[in-house]
């Protein structure tokens, strides 16, 4: 059972979390004019567009053929989270009959790109970026939802305006204690240990592992801190940093049997001190407070990881909170939600 927000969906009831019976009124896409392709992946193609009714920029997420219940789940979650701090806004849902395609019309946010961010962000920029991400996640978790695919490509960040939005809710799901969820979610460099060993009763804490991976990338100036060739190699990369002793303890605690023919995963590895990854280039941002926060996020045992609220309260963010207190407007998202 999750340490926080475990009973949210039970308390709010089926009207909040049940999505398979959701009836969606699809609009026609005529008012939207595509201007350029932004990217795509396994489940969608994404385009920048103009809404001809008001000349505002927007994003069209064209969904590839998937189960209708998956589309309903994403729309239900986006509607439930509407107006939350740093959550991308769902503006419209459209269906194009000739192509039989379904699309989500989303808020447009300028993105400065991860390759630039992880290489050049100052300490204060890193703190602001992560604090705003944690605000979003605490809100999401407090609504009984796991994102399950937190990664830099799913975070739009307008650096000049200090505007962050958490996007792509196609893999998100409602958390119910004791439920077995599929482990095949997330992106490999950000997969938490529970996913890699196929432990199915995970919870919100898998999103906090992702935050730890992003923090490590930013303070150590690496595009991906852990990057394996496949899931077993990904786990091996983690073992060589966090050590094998605590991993074995984690497996024992949760009764997990590791099925593998990779003998490297069965060897002993010493835990590496985070200071080992400090270089002359990253020394000014890899502070003792940053390393302490990192250590409390990148834990095998998901129950030992900080929650999003606990991470926000860490001393690493003291200056961000002071700025927020001196400028109350920083507490508000564009839509007016307040997050302490």
TrEMBL record:
Its main location: nucleus. Keywords: ATP-binding, Kinase, Nucleotide-binding, Nucleus, Serine/threonine-protein kinase, Transferase. ATP binds at residue 69. GO terms for cellular component: cytosol; nucleolus; protein kinase CK2 complex. It is an enzyme of class 2 (transferase). One of its GO terms (molecular function) is protein serine kinase activity. Gene3D superfamilies: Phosphorylase Kinase, domain 1 (3.30.200.20), Transferase(Phosphotransferase) domain 1 (1.10.510.10). Residues 32-317 form the Protein kinase domain. It catalyses: L-seryl-[protein] + ATP = O-phospho-L-seryl-[protein] + ADP + H(+); L-threonyl-[protein] + ATP = O-phospho-L-threonyl-[protein] + ADP + H(+). It is found in: Nucleus. One of its GO terms (biological process) is regulation of cell cycle. Its EC number is 2.7.11.1. The keyword Membrane does not apply. Belongs to the protein kinase superfamily. Ser/Thr protein kinase family. CK2 subfamily. Heterotetramer. Catalytic subunit of a constitutively active serine/threonine-protein kinase complex that phosphorylates a large number of substrates containing acidic residues C-terminal to the phosphorylated serine or threonine. This is Casein kinase II subunit alpha. It comes from Postia placenta MAD-698-R-SB12.
């Amino acid at each position: 059972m999750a340490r926080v927000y475990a009973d949210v969906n039970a308390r709010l009831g089926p009207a909040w979390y049940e999505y398979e019976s959701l009836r969606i009124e699809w609009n026609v896409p005529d008012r939207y004019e595509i201007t350029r392709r932004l990217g795509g992946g396994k489940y969608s193609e994404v385009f920048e567009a103009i809404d001809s009714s008001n000349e505002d920029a927007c994003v069209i997420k064209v969904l590839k053929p998937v189960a209708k219940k998956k589309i309903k789940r994403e729309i239900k979650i986006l509607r439930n989270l509407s107006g939350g701090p740093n959550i991308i806004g769902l503006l419209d849902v459209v269906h194009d009959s000739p192509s039989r395609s379904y699309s989500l019309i989303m808020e447009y946010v300028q993105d400065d790109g991860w390759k630039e961010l992880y290489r050049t962000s100052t300490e204060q920029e890193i703190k602001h970026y992560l604090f705003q991400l944690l605000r979003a996640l605490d809100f999401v978790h407090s609504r009984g939802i796991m994102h399950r695919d937190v990664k830099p490509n799913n975070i739009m960040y307008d650096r000049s305006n200090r505007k962050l939005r958490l996007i792509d809710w196609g893999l998100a799901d409602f958390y119910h204690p004791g439920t077995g969820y599929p482990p095949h979610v997330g992106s490999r460099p950000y997969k938490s240990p529970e996913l890699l060993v196929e432990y199915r009763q995970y919870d919100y804490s898998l999103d906090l592992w992702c935050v730890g991976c992003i923090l490590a990338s930013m303070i150590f100036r690496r595009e991906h801190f852990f990057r394996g060739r496949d899931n077993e190699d990904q786990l091996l990369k983690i073992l060589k940093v966090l050590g094998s002793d605590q991993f074995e303890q984690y497996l024992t605690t949760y009764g997990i049997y590791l099925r593998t023919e990779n003998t490297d995963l069965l060897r002993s590895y010493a835990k590496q001190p985070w200071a080992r990854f400090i270089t002359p280039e990253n020394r000014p941002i890899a502070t003792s407070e940053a390393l302490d926060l990192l250590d409390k996020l990148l834990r095998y045992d998901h129950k030992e990881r900080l929650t999003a609220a606990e991470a926000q309260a860490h001393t690493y963010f003291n200056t961000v909170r002071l700025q927020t207190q001196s400028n109350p407007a920083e507490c508000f998202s564009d839509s007016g939600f307040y997050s302490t």
